[in-house]
Structure formats: C-alpha cells, structure tokens
Amino acid sequence: MNELFSKPNQITYIRILLIPVFVIFLLMEAPYKDYIAAFIFIILSLSDALDGYIARKKKQITPSGKILDPIADKLLIATALIFLIGRVQLWMAIVIIVRELVITVARLFFLPKKVVISASKLGKIKTISQIVAIIAVILNLPFNWWLMLIAVIITVVSGLDYIIKMGKLMEEDVLNIPNIITTSRLLLIPLYIINLAKLNLKFALVSFAIIILSDKIDGISARITNQITKFGKIYDSFTDFALIVSSCIAFYLIGFIEFFWFLVFIVPSLSLTITRLVDYRKSKEVSSSALGKIVIGISYIAIIAIIIDFYKFEMLVFIAVLAYIYMVVDLYKIFRINKFKSRSF
Asked: Do 14 and 47 form a contact (C-beta atoms < 8 A)?
C-alpha cells in the first residue's frame, strides 16, 4: 500500500488529475489559450521526467510505478489527440490511441505472471516524438503535420518492438507466418480508417475486406504450419479489438453513429477485455468460445452495414444485444469459477 502512494506515484496521480485543466484551456475561447494549453501540456509532460528522477534518486522504483507512469503518459497523449482532432488527422490520432490501448492491455495481461513490462528506450523516444508533435499542432507551428507523421511511424515501430518482447516473455517464437499476417492486418487498419475519414467508402470497404480475409488466412496458416501459440491467439484478439474499437471511434467522429451507440459498444468491449484477463489469470489459457466468434463475425457485418447504410439501426441493435449477452455470459462464467474455487477450500 505504501508503494502506491510513494512520492513519485503522488506526482503521477497529480499529473492525471490535471489533464482536465489542460482540456479546459484547449477548448475555451480566450486570448492566448493555445499558448496556455501548450504550456500546461509541457508541464504535465515534464512531470513525467520529474517523477522518474525522484524514483531513481530515492530508490522508489516500484512495480506499480512502472505501470502507473506509462498509463499517465497514455492518458495525456490520448486526451490531447482526441480534443485536437480536426487539427490532427483522424487516422493519425486513431493509430496512436489504438496502439497505446493495445500495449496497455497487453501489459495488464502479464500482471498475473508478476511480469512488469517497463518502458523501453524506443518507447521513451516514441513518447517524446508524440509530445513534440502535439505541441507543434497546438501552436500551429510549421511542419506540424510531418512531426505528427514521424510520431505515428515511431509509435507503430515501438508497438511492434513491444509485441516481440512480449512473445519472448511467453517463451514462444513470435516471428512466424501467422503473426506476420496478423501484423499486416494490424498495419492495414490505418489505411481503412484514412479512407473512412475521407469518406472514400469503396476503398474503405476494400481495405476492410482485406483485413477480414487476412484474419481467416492467419488462422488457417497457423493450423497448417502447426504454429498455434498463446501469443498468436492474444495478438489476433487484440487486432480484432483494435479494428472494432477504431471503427466505433471513427464512426462516431465522422457522424455515422451517435455518441449513445459509441458508449453502448465501448462498455462490453472493455468488460470483455477485463474478463479475458481474469480468465487467463485463473486458467493460464487463452480461451475462446463459439459465441465470441459469432459476436466478432456479426460485428464485422455490422461495420459493413454502417458503412453502406444498410439497415444500420437494426444491425446496431442486433450486435448490441449479442455483445451484452456475451458480456453477461463471460461475467457469469468468471463468477461461477470463483464461487466453485471458494467452495473447494
């Protein structure tokens, strides 16, 4: 408990609590508001280095700090990008946010094994490039688009670096054909989002179709080459999650769905992610179910229906009902397992 409220962690908590102040100045109508917002953003970013310095100086580097510090960085970056959409291209924001979300969830996945994946040097370079790019966008500096593009590229590369490290921690060969196909599918998501944001719906549908097809191909290749691994299953699930969540975000931002529907689908997505982590902690296996596969498949159909505006409302209701049924079934499964284990003692 003491390590949760150590001095470095206290600074991290303050940094998180001050993020809304940055947003207020970013959105308010006042003279020099962009300069004030940029100043607050810089202070919050520099506080990251401060809590790290104090942690090393006082020898208060803790597992909780290694988790909290990157999460605070991601919250700050994601919040800035969300409220800068319009000044930052939608696909750039989504690529960065989805990458951060996927890696954060992956880190939480390793917590039951008492393995903490701390920020790497490449990860720190990624954070610096994002900070510089966001400040340039806030202040509308020259070449801010190119700075953001550089940040996106480094973000993707560092994400792949983390994925390789996670595979090694699981003592599995991650550089195999199925995972390469999954990576190509992950990298195609920004192309799909770009076309969606530009309302190039035909190209968006083609990109989406290729992503779905490659999903099937990586599964077939894994079985044929006998390269089915726990990491591959997790990586594949994360890619499905990234595709569905990024689609929901894009649909809301370009006006295809209302905020109500965005919330409706985010709740089961987060809940199912948490239950997957809990399930793995109990069984040490990556489980899948027929209902889960059906929900993913129907989600893909619903995404296509939304893009082409074909029975959109009906599809939204149908997939929402399925998603919440799946969520309830998963929660009941976890509750039943815990109840059974408590009775066995």
From this structure: yes
Q: Which residue has the tokens 């039943």?
A: 336
Structure tokens at 196: 């969606």
User: In the predicted model, what is the mean pLDDT of the chain?
Assistant: 78
Mean pLDDT confidence for 129-137: 93
The DSSP letter of residue 4 is: G
* CB contact at 8 A, 180 and 240: no
- Listed residue (16, 2, 84) closest to 47, CA to CA: 16
Q: Which two tokens stand for residue 286?
A: 């990556």
| 19-28 contacts at long range (C-beta below 8 A, 24 or more positions apart) | 19/44, 19/75, 19/76, 19/79, 22/76, 22/79, 22/80, 23/79, 23/83, 26/80, 26/83, 26/84, 26/138, 27/83
Domains of the chain by start residue, with CATH: 1-169 (1.20.120.1760), 172-345 (1.20.120.1760)
Quote the pLDDT of residue 120. Answer: 67
The three-state secondary structure class of 85 is: strand
Residue with tokens 């390590």: 3
- Comparing CA positions, the residue from 67, 59, 62, 25 lying closest to residue 44 is 25
Other C-beta atoms lying within 10 Å of the C-beta of residue 127: 23
